[in-house]
């Protein structure tokens, strides 16, 4: 669950939503197929994910934020055609102990296809649309298992087969992830909910010149969602010369390289501070008796003795959040109850719905990305002319 502290901010702006804006929330993954195919490969210790952007960013968040803490698997994200990195992954994995999962909804992402061939001697599972696309054709010719990608854009697909299949292989409870997602979709698409209010506040602040979001995550587990959050906001909202951009960072480290900009730079940035209410583990600061009287700022080192580190990180956030009031900088605080499978789904649902609300507030299409295609066309022409 999520709590919002709007820090006195309110907006009267209305975000107009159409009946089909949340069709993606009603897509039902084929859990039977996920379970059936995962059952073939559950004993393999290495997973290699070949994917780009939205096809992998949600699972990356699930893995970095939760999976790696509980799983005995090794996961390698091949989101590049960098030959040094591909060599490194192939050196660490063997075809006998590894499964490659190649994901592309369109099946025409050129550098994904190139990387598929780089791992052609490995067992692969392909997640792509049911269309007659190149990736689907490769899978049929090579005898790879195919999972059909739903007809929704990659950045909104993480709570379907694209994110759930690798999550299951890593030992995550994907039923709980889906339960959290469905509850989040229900909460955040209901009338007069806090995410709708947040979107209205952001739009009103943008109209006043605050055209950048400073978004620090005060939790390493939640910071795993940085790439997904950045893609959802930037790719869904910033188009047609409109929109807002976001700078996402991990707190409290962000205080050492972004706070000066946030507080001392141009006054066009507002804060969206995010943390967890309950951390999963408990660690305390223990100061030896012979060191407690050492001076620290205007106190003693012993003042820290016995402090829970969960409280320490909250104090770090408190310092920056309260400083926004001293500097008259608008800011909102978001608290996620905890990081577990249920809240992985719930928080992902929040990010997806927030992106749609924001796009609608700026009166742009949340689901396209027209400016992305130009660079892809140029790079493919360069490949076609390579032999020439």
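Sequence proposed for the structure above (388 residues):
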């Amino acid at each position: 669950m999520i709590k919002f502290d709007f820090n006195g901010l309110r907006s009267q702006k209305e975000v107009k939503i159409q009946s089909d804006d949340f069709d993606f929330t009603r897509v039902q993954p084929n859990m039977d197929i996920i379970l059936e195919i995962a059952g073939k490969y559950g004993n393999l210790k290495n997973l290699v994910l070949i994917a780009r952007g939205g096809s992998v960013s949600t699972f990356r968040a699930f893995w970095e934020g939760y999976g790696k803490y509980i799983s005995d698997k090794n996961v390698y994200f091949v989101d590049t055609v960098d030959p040094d990195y591909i060599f490194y992954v192939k050196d660490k994995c063997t075809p006998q102990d590894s499964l490659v999962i190649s994901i592309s909804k369109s099946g025409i992402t050129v550098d994904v296809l190139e990387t598929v061939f780089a791992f052609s001697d490995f067992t692969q599972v392909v997640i792509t649309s049911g269309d007659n696309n190149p990736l689907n054709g490769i899978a049929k010719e090579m005898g790879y298992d195919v999972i059909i990608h739903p007809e929704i854009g990659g950045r909104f697909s993480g709570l379907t087969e694209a994110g759930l299949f690798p999550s299951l292989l890593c030992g995550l409870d994907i039923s709980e992830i889906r339960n959290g997602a469905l509850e989040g979709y229900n909460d955040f698409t209901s009338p007069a909910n806090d995410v709708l209010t947040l979107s209205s506040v952001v739009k009103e602040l943008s109209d006043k010149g605050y055209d950048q979001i400073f978004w620090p995550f005060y939790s390493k587990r939640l910071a795993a969602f940085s790439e997904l959050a950045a893609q959802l906001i930037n790719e869904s909202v910033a188009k047609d010369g409109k929109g807002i951009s976001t700078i996402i960072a991990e707190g409290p480290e962000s205080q050492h390289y972004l706070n000066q900009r946030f507080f001392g730079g141009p006054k066009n940035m507002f804060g969206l501070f995010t943390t967890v209410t309950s951390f999963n583990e408990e660690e305390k600061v223990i100061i030896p008796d012979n060191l407690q009287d050492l001076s620290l700022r205007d106190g003693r080192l012993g003042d820290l003795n016995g402090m829970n580190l969960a409280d320490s990180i909250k104090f770090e956030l408190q310092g920056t959040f309260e400083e926004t009031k001293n500097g008259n900088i608008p800011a909102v605080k978001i608290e996620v109850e905890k990081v577990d499978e249920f809240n992985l789904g719930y928080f992902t649902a929040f990010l997806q719905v927030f992106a749609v609300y924001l796009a609608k507030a700026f009166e742009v299409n949340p689901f396209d990305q027209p400016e992305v295609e130009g660079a892809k066309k140029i790079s493919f022409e360069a490949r076609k002319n390579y032999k020439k």
